[in-house]
Write a structure and sequence with these properties.
This protein has helices spanning 8-15, 25-38, 60-71, 102-116, 131-134, 139-146, 151-154, 158-165, 172-188, 200-212, 249-257, 261-271, 276-288, 293-308, 311-328, 359-365, 372-380, 398-401; strands spanning 21-23, 43-48, 75-80, 125-129, 192-196, 219-223, 336-340, 347-348, 356-358, 384-386, 389-390, 395-396, 406-409, 412-419. By secondary structure, it is α/β, with parallel strands linked by helices. Helix 11 runs antiparallel to helix 14.
Amino acid sequence: MSVFFPSLEEQLDLITKGAAEILPLEALKERITRSISTGVPMRIKAGFDPTAPDLHLGHTVLIRKLRHFQQLGHVVIFLIGDSTALIGDPTGRNVTRKPLTREEIAANAETYKEQVFKILDPVLTEVRYNSEWLDTLGYYDMVKLMAQFTVSQMLEREDFHKRFNEEQPIALHELIYPIAQGYDSVALKCDVELGGTDQKFNLMRGRDLQKHFGQPQQSILMMPIIEGLDGVQKMSKSLGNAIGIKESPAEMYGKLMSISDELMWKYWVFLTDLRGSEIEQMKADVASGALHPMLAKKNLARVITADFHSEELAEVAAESWATQFQQRGVSEDVPVVRVSWDEDGLVDVLGDLGGGVRMAKLLHFAGLAASTGEATRKIAENAVSINGEKISSRIVSKHQLGDSPILRLGKKSVRVEWVG
């Protein structure tokens, strides 16, 4: 059955949105053009090893890009790496991963399916497990696959090279992982494979093996690793800067409202379905004053929350968030000021709080006080609050301040955006 596809330009507008690198881009354009002329959709794959039960928004960057291809009429394959999970992707690792059991992998895979269909259309998604072909490969076939690569090729991979030079152990089964992932593309006859920028070595092995087996070589589309709530480190539950997709609407909405304005634009790009041209227009509207940045952020929080819950629950979360601000006596549309952690004297590294912030300095740098002396007096007068809570301490922990604190001195309020 043939499919009617949007034009090449329309497809590229959505496909290239946020992409860090597409290799080779011209080959992808040729495939899209062929799909338009023949009515035959491309086959797009992204693989996920079920190594943990819960996903966060950082994991959904690739899933959302799959959705973009799905919206354009192409076949998307959500590949569950139940066999490769037995090895564990060594990407970015400085030690060998602890192996999972088959039972743990199966349980995690079920939760993955439940979560990804909050983004993908379950009817139009081809769900596959790489145990279908990897578990049936015999010894002879595996030897033939491994014969296509050399040890020196494997050691070109950055993390292997680093571990080798530092005399850190590299188990032999880890060297198989990129080859197994590459064979996934052969088994599925992929036209495009998606992955993070840290996956480039693995993604290229799919092209190598497709060439060996006489298949057209896939294009690879790499997406960046997005930062978490702090806007600095990659989103990670272990770092405490993640937004889990199973979190409540109120939690999700509130966390999204705490991000910086700069990070907001990245989230619009990587965590929504808006086309690149639409996001650029929104940025222009904010720059011209036609759209307040706070409204742009509220729209973002509502869109993302609705994606994982519903429009109704997102609206309730938005109303609840607004009510909290009203109860604190703080306007939602407070001005934003950027303060660097490196400002002279801001952080009290030797104090009891071990990295606490000198509030008088912060109030001065934020423009709420003309001098640190004035700020010190106002703190003593109990005229300063953080996120609606009065403070009397001259030094406050970074944890108490949070990622995007609202500071108030008297009738003036600002929201601090940390930089540096």
